[in-house]
Amino acid sequence: MAEPVPPLPSGADFARQGTPSFLTPNANFYRIDTALVVPQVRAEDWTLRVHGMVDSELSLSYDDIRSRPLVERRVTLCCVSNPVGGPYVSTATFVGVELADLLEEAGVRPGARQLFSTSADGWTCGTPVGAALDRERGALLALGMNGEPLPLEHGFPARMVVPGLYGYVSATKWVVDMEVTTWNARRAYWLERDWAREAPVKTQSRVDRPRESATVGLGTVTAAGVAWAQPTGVEAVRVRLDDGPWREADLAADVSDDTWRMWRIDLEITEPGEHRVTCRAVDKSGSAQTGERAPVLPDGATGWHTVAFTAR
């Protein structure tokens, strides 16, 4: 039995106003990976090797992991290739063991900087050792997702989940090997393709309603969307109609700094024709989401999301 997360508070989303549900169903959870064919590893055949700059190498079976204390964590994951306003962000309740427990049991040696993980299909990932060991961050070796074993396409039998980092440096699916090493000793798959070595999640927000090119009636129009700033958390979302003043949106219940937060606001549309709605988030450190446009390469897109719509 896993140590459960608290129940979701009422008002955790504004799904009736157009946001996603707070938890993303497994079938709808975004998937980005390099696997042409989803690896199919039987639980009874799976082992995880933890080695490298450690005092004691570990070789762990699926039953070994399941017999350890399990914890639940709600985490929003997002892909570095997500464009501004894009769909590659989702939230789930993951169940697994503390990654820090495994690494501390192995005994990380001084000078180690990278946790170099490898999936069953040979894909590799480099994660900062400090992030994997940070208990406040709460990195997991996850076995379950939203009350079920991990789906095949999301990493069964086991995957890494490290809040606050883009997936390509943190979220190895079908993981079978973890080598504690340095940055100079090993170079992961995407690092060889000119992506950044370390990739903390950038504060972002998105307009989900109205949809791009939608037609709405004159009068009160509800705009709604999501914002995320893991692991700092979202403090505020500000919304602008056309070139008007920025206004504070209403926020849904604050579930966790490691998860997204929904927002909504009523806008008064008095003039027919084309209009725009733009959003920007502020994290709990007081830092506002930048409006400067940057592409996804090398460490994630930036910019404010704007949706154009028509009022009649």
Give an account of the 3D structure:
It is a single chain. By secondary structure, the protein is mostly beta strands. The chain has two domains: 15-193, Sulfite Oxidase, Chain A, domain 2 (Alpha-Beta Complex); 204-311, Immunoglobulin-like. Helix content is 6%, strand content 37%. The protein has helices spanning 62-66, 99-106, 129-133; strands at 47-52, 58-61, 71-78, 89-98, 114-119, 124-128, 140-145, 148-149, 159-161, 175-181, 204-209, 215-216, 219-228, 234-241, 247-248, 250-251, 261-269, 273-283, 305-311. The protein has a five-stranded mixed beta sheet with strand order 2-1-10-5-6. Strands 3, 4, 7, 8 and 9 form a five-stranded antiparallel beta sheet that branches. The chain has a five-stranded mixed beta sheet with strand order 12-19-18-14-15, with no helix packed on it. The longest helix has 8 residues, at 99-106. It is elongated. The mean pLDDT is 97.
Give structural attributes.
312 residues, mainly beta, Sulfite Oxidase, Chain A, domain 2, Immunoglobulin-like, five-stranded antiparallel beta sheet, 6% helix, elongated
Secondary structure blueprint with pairings:
Blueprint lengths: L46 E6 L5 E4 H5 L4 E8 L10 E10 H8 L7 E6 L4 E5 H5 L6 E6 L2 E2 L9 E3 L13 E7 L22 E6 L5 E2 L2 E10 L5 E8 L5 E2 L1 E2 L9 E9 L3 E11 L21 E7 L1
Parallel strand pairs: 1-10, 12-19
Antiparallel strand pairs: 1-2, 3-4, 4-7, 5-6, 5-10, 7-8, 7-9, 11-13, 13-17, 14-15, 14-18, 16-17, 18-19
